[in-house]
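Minutes, structural biology subgroup

Action item carried over from last meeting: produce the structure token record for Cbb3-type cytochrome c oxidase subunit I (Dawidia cretensis). EB confirmed the sequence was re-checked against the source entry. Recorded below for completeness.
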Amino acid sequence: MKPARSLLTYTLLLTAPALPRAGYAQPVAEQSAPLLAQPGILITLVLILIPLLAAFIFMVLQVRRTLLRLQWQKQPTTQADQLEYLEGEAIDATRLQYKPAAAYHLSGRELAGTYAPDDSRGVIQQASNNHAIPFVAEKKKAQARPAVDPMLTRLILWYLGTATFWLVVGTTVGEYLGIKFVSPDVDTTSWLSFGRLRPVHTNAVFWGWSSLAMLGLGYYVVPKVSNTTIASLRQGWQTLILINAAVVLGSLCLMSGINNAGGEYREYVWPVMALFGVGLIITLINFLRTVARRTTTEIYISNWYIISSIIFVLVITVIAYWPTWQNGLGETIVQGYYMHQGVGMWFMLFNLGLVYYFLPQQLNKPIYSYSLGILAFWAQILFYTLIGTHHFVFSSIPWWLQTVAIVGSMGMLIPVIAGTTNFFMTLKGGWNKIGSSYTLPFYVTGIIFYFTGSFQGTAEAFRFTNLLWHFTDFTVAHSHLTMYGIIAFLLWASIYALVPRLTGHEPPQWLVGAHFWLAFLGLMFYTIPLMIGGTLRGLMWMDGKPFIESVVLMAPYWLWRAIGGSLMWLSHLLFAYNFYRMVVGARVAHRAAAPVREVLA
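Output recorded by EB:
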């Protein structure tokens, strides 16, 4: 049997080049087909146009609204104004018509009496002087809500404040890295090299900015939807200290060349990541205790998402750092699992839980469908946990495992479509509120990118598009569409929705608008050129062109990357200032008072 088996093996090896390639690689016919005939390419083009079209429609509506206001102000409102539009005998007739009315004059005291008005709050002055069209549309102020425990408010603000710090620090490093793409010889210091700073940037925004911001918002949402108080404020402070310590120590280790050697987004060595894990264990226990003491009958869907995300990130972190899975092909499979689950089952799942609370609150209406939320929840758990290895299509990983990942990527359309439909149906009837809100534009943008970015990830998992795009700058663009376009925008929306209610201070409205547009336009300038350049680069690799030619090709696209990144970085500085303005002189939000009491106070 052994000689026969050996003969069969050698025969297959010799005849393999003549066999169809469908079993182990992309068919030649499919690779040579026109680029625009590929389904993944067409889907991606449509998905890129959706946010651009949405932004264009929003800008057109805003310009139209402003022009209508100007036109309304120019309409004749007095007799003199109306006479300008009349000629000949019509003028005489109009004058005779208004002559009796012109002889009557009001004394000005018909309603006020003989005493001067007491206008200590400036209501009369504001009502009489506010006639001009503002440069930025007036936004509604945050409504007063029931009082929040001052100690909980302090804890939440510390979470959000440290998260904002890491956003500025992490993206400042990213800004510097973008400059190094254009000017690679800007420095010669080892601890400022690209290989050391790149993981500093990614880990700071992952574990410092996004994670701390999510947890801070979670400490408000979890007890709020449970109609109870947080189980332990002390445990909240313990988690805050542990996670910040992990990011500080991890950043110093990475800049010193101490890292986990090859694991993307898990460059922190295990003792550093253990601090992060212990902090999350403490928070998980705290949230579970809070939900257990709830006074509501059911567990609201936000808590389903939030608590599940903490459980998942603990599981994937243990798997990713388990010592016996750090070598060989198994380490590659674990890396794909960890990298993708970190985004989808930690950041995405937690943020969706926040949206299920804050979006209905901002619209002052319930979520459209609880059932759609539950469908999206279980479908994401089913399909997202399967898709990590679609990052390694055409690798040595078993073909069946690659196929499972691709099928799972297709299955992700179910939770994405269910969640997007749920959010947009909740927005139904409330689209007119977007112009008067500085939180809803962030939510709508995040939801749009949730659909387009996730759908684009599915298209990128197709075998041809994976062969074309993977390991190019297209993957960098996709990761920013998801982690920035979805996670960052949804976090900003939730922070702008919550902090004024905690402190009683609103952010400068025009700076919120500047923050939004700089972040959105910067993201577009960053991602679209990288998608174009990444596609051209992939085609060069498929044609067997020298690698250095693809590097030269990317030079102008990297310049646009630096420009877009600079706009995004400026928006973060504005956000940090807006957060400072919301917090400075903070006072705890008061209970909603009766209008008469408010005036007499």
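Discussion: The CA atoms of residues 176 and 562 lie 9 Å apart.
Next step: EB to file the record with the rest of the batch.
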